[in-house]
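Give me a protein, keeping tokens residue-aligned:
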Amino acid sequence: MRKQEMRMGGEAGQGHGAGSPAEQVKALMDLLAGKGCQGSQAPQTPDRTPDSPRGPHGNDSRIQRHQEALLSRAGGSLELGGPSPRLTNLLLVEGLMDLQLREHDFTQVEATRGAWRSARTITLNRLFLPLSRVSIPPRISITIGVAGVGKTTLVRHFVCLWARGQIGKDFSLVLPLTFRDLNTHEKLSADRLIRSIFPHVGESGLEVAALAKVLLILDGLDECKTPLDFSNTVACTDPKKEIQVDHLITNIIRGNLFPEVSVWVTSRPSAAGQIPGGLVDRMTEIRGFNGEEIKVCLEQMFPEDQVLLDWVLSQVRAHRALYLMCTVPAFCRLAGLALGHLCRHRQGPQDTELWPPRTLCELYSCYFRMALGGEGQEKGKVSPRIEQLAHGGRRMVGTLGRMAFHGLVKKKYVFYEPDLKAFGVDLALLQSTVCSYFLQREETLASSAAYCFTHLSLQEFLGAAYYYSASKRAIFDLFTEGGVSWPRLGFLTHFRSAAQRAMQAEDGRLDVFLRFLCGLLSPRVNDLLAGSLLAPGEQQGSRAQVAQLLQGCLQPNTVVCARAVNVLHCLHELQHTELARSVEEAMESGGLARLTGPPHRAALAYLLQVSDACAQEANLSLSLSQGVLQSLLPQLLYCRSLRLDTNQFQDPVMELLGSVLSGKDCRIQRISLAENQISNKGAKALARSLLVNRSLTSLDLRCNSIGPQGAKALADALKINRTLASLSLQSNRIRDDGAKFMAEALAANRTLSVMHLQKNTIGPMGAQHMADALKQNRSLKELMFSSNSIGDGGAKALAEALKVNQGLESLDLQSNSISDTGVAALMGALCANRALLSLNLRENSISPEGAQDLARALCTNSTLKNLDLTANLLHDQGAQAIAMAVRENHTLMSLHLQWNFIQAGAAKALGQALQFNKSLISLDLQENAIGDEGACAVASALKANTALTALYLQVASIGARGAQALGEALAVNRTLEILDLRGNAIGVAGAKALANALKVNSSLRRLNLQENSLGMDGMICIATALSGNHGIQHINLQGNHIGESGARMISETIKTNAPSCTVEM
């Protein structure tokens, strides 16, 4: 916030009335101009060491005086604490995004959802050093950041640290200058520029040899009164020639003047675009607050009132739009002040006038009330002091507001005393406390004062308030000050003019102004500002007409631009939310496909920015046509996660999405395009984008038809791409050739960690290619190869790879026609492998003989945690062998033996193993006929076992006796959380046994008794037992034949006895 950012060099010349002799400045000018061979040589006998507090040139008294002046201007602020990490670690960016060049700062934060670019960071002490040993230091450096993010604060910290010799020791001299200073001059020479910043050159002359390097800081390019024009500026190499200030700066940046000087420019992003990218050697960006820094900022504002802090934090977090803007430090402080004032002066929950703000204009209205001292008002009464303040407030709006408005129109953000006089601003008013909340004063090098609003948004708020007030009586267009226009009468006419101007402004500079103008029409804002800034009930009859006018601005253009999204922000400020709400409801219900008009598209783009539901993932499945998608492309750029499944997208849509993913502004990290109609042509379009994309980490193309050639295109891209971590090509008919191409990519790629190739008709040859790649690749962690046909040959090839590969953690070989031969090879590898954590062998042909190999591997392997053997042919013999291994194994955590023809004998063996095993937490025995005898064996183990948390016994032929045994175990067991008994026949007796256990058990969280012939009596027992059980969170009692009325009664009983339990009936 510039209110708290001090300019460091501006007053350096104050108090030194005598100028330096021309010949004494000439030496410095020659150095800066690159003349003289001694300029780069260090002095032979310096009085101070390079690490001295005054730096390597501290022996020169003039530089010492300059450093002392800089420290004096800092006011000792460095003693209060060093800069925050976000200021000492800047983002190293490659250039400006289109969004930064085109849009308002607020729009930039909203569109990117407060997320800053993923980029390398560079510390402040290395900001002007080479990035590598073979590179050179930057000459032109630019640091960008939105208004209020802390650019001037950063400059202040750097200059202060340099003056103390703690940073930038390579620089002999640092010359800080602000554009607020430069704006006071019409023409200026380089000679006079240096004199104004560095007036400490003494009469004895400056030893040029002692000056090795100079840094010129130009802070606040966005405040330059004349835009820089690098195309038409005439070159100037004479440092004494007086030229226009913008021409002077242009020639300095080009290197025509001071070619040896390092230049550091700070600017808002849009203004930084004036400097050609070819001239910029290094660009950095100041990021805003993250969630923790927002909290810390507010804690510093309310250090002694935890209740107040908690309330303010809750309000910030509850409103996503407010939270996003609080990532900007200046806005966070402003919001904190307004919300803190609001909380302190609320009479109670019934005080509707001071409810928490829901819109931007409501927040700024609260801030205005605070500035005006409105807390002194009593209900129904207005004290003379408040009347006087209110009169002063209206007077301020009429003067400062007029200046603010015309400043916005002319892109003018810094004002001087002639400007104030021209707009009729009473200089005495500037000394008031009220004014200090909006305007700040700074001295310039020209001994005149510069004024600016404490934040850009406050200029926009006051400008809107002025326009709102003036439009009631204005006859001509307020945007053409001093010009001629057709007569315009009435508020609506002027509002239409403002809306048209805002929609036509390509840089979005009037977007927030228009939001405030709409917000001033809302009833809540009228209540907040009635009697101080607005007349009660003023313009309320215009709300409906304004809403209609705004929606009329949403024309059927091919693209939903930022201006259209801003219309939705305006409607929100107006409290006309029907359009956005209808689209949000359609998104939730899956009916978005029928809403395709321009207003609905704009509303959808708006919701993608502000909706909590879209914050983590924008789910647009079953919703979009090609036309709607095309119109939303600019807004999709900034979604972090996109789900576009089942939209019948064909290859032309992939061309569009490819262009989005190729954009330098793209922030998309995850995109799902499952179950569309994408062929190899569409895959090639996506592959081309992967060659340049640097944001995408996950791409899901399952259930399309990309074929081998589409796989080849993607594989070629993966050889170059260094960001994609997860790729799903499930069900894409890529066959062995496609697997070969993917294997070639894996041999070169070092970032892909997850690859899904299920259901792709891949045979042994494809598996062989993949195995060869795994012998080289160390980054892939998860390979999904299920539902192919690799057979024993493919299994053997993968086994050989596993002996070498120590990176793969999860391998899925479900349904691949693997028999005992392939399993033997895999288990041999497992004895040597120390990386694999999960192995899925479901739905293969593993017999008891293969189970013996599995058991031997489990006794040796000490890393595997999850083993799935569902739907094989283990029988009791094979399961018993595995049970013996489980008894000795100390790492396996999950074992699936569903549907393996296991009976009581194997269940007994597993029960005995569980009494000794301390690692297994999940056991799945469902659809095995273990009967009561097997259930009793497992129950007996539960009495001693302290590790198992999930037990699945669905359709296991368990009757009342088995349920009774399990009930007795549950009465003792303190670790089991999930018990699934669906599809058995435990009956009333079993239900009663389990009910008795539930009365004392405190660990069970989920219980499934679906289809168990419990009867009404059994259900009542279970429902009654839950009254004393506070652990159960979910219970399924479906299919127990108690009728609709009985189900309703049991459900209500459970909800009464256990309110936190979810019941399925």
The radius of gyration is 36 Å. The first strand starts at residue 89 and ends at 93.
